[in-house]
Q: What sequence folds into this?
């Protein structure tokens, strides 16, 4: 049954345009979101990490620093232009060898099946409201994660209501996650979900 029948329709928002990518990688954002602290909290050296909807790599960079040379970050975005920005920035910082860039389809992460159960952690930060089929997205992330792996999920409150966020968490639970904790990520809604 499609998610909108179960939980009421939630509007899909337009995709953040790559021409505005600079707004996503600023000192102010670094000060507010403390991406290094987030990475150190949920990622370990050697981990394989999915950064879904990576944009220009604001969080990708910190995940790559933490995973080290023995780990890997798969940075996934719909827009090739975003991935090219990530490539340029990470190359300049010597982090590119730890990162795989992957352009997905609008309605699928579209990673090969042999990637299933290989990820330790996944992040969907400020992106799920732009995705046409969140139910499918959570199912795909659930398949990619190892049992016990975590999904950190965050959405902006001025775009995603509390009700909508709760509905999305329910979809993730149906896809095989346990809702471990809910918290605020600066002033955004956030949840930590664990793959059962
Ligand atoms: C608001 S930006 C957030 C970027 C990054 N997570 C951050 O917080 O800095 C949303 C990103 O998700 C990507 N996106 C939107 N819809 C997507 C989809 N269906 N699949 C993958 N990426 C998508 C956009 O291209 C954009 O780069």
A:
């Amino acid at each position: 049954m499609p998610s909108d029948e179960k939980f009421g329709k939630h509007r899909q928002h337009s995709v953040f345009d790559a021409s505005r990518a600079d707004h996503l990688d600023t000192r102010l954002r670094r000060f507010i979101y403390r991406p290094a602290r987030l990475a150190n909290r949920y990622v370990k050296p050697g981990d394989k990490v999915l950064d879904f909807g990576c944009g220009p790599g604001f969080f990708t960079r910190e995940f790559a620093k933490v995973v080290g040379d023995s780990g890997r970050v798969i940075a996934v975005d719909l827009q090739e232009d975003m991935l090219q920005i990530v490539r340029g920035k990470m190359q300049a910082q010597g982090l590119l060898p730890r990162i795989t860039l992957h352009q997905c389809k609008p309605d699928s992460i579209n990673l090969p099946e042999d990637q299933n159960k290989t990820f330790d952690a996944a992040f969907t930060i400020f992106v799920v409201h732009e995705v046409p089929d969140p139910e499918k997205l959570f199912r795909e992330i659930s398949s990619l994660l190892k049992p016990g792996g975590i999904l950190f999920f965050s959405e902006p409150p001025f775009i995603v209501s509390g009700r909508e966020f709760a509905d999305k968490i329910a979809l993730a639970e149906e896809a095989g996650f346990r809702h471990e904790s809910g918290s605020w990520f600066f002033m955004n809604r956030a949840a930590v979900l664990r793959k059962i």
Strands lie at 48-52, 72-77, 99-103, 119-125, 145-155, 177-185, 188-195. Residues 63 and 84 are 18 Å apart (CA to CA). Residues 15-16, 24, 53-55, 58-59, 76-79, 82, 104, 106, 125-127, 130-131 surround S-adenosylmethionine (CB under 6 Å).
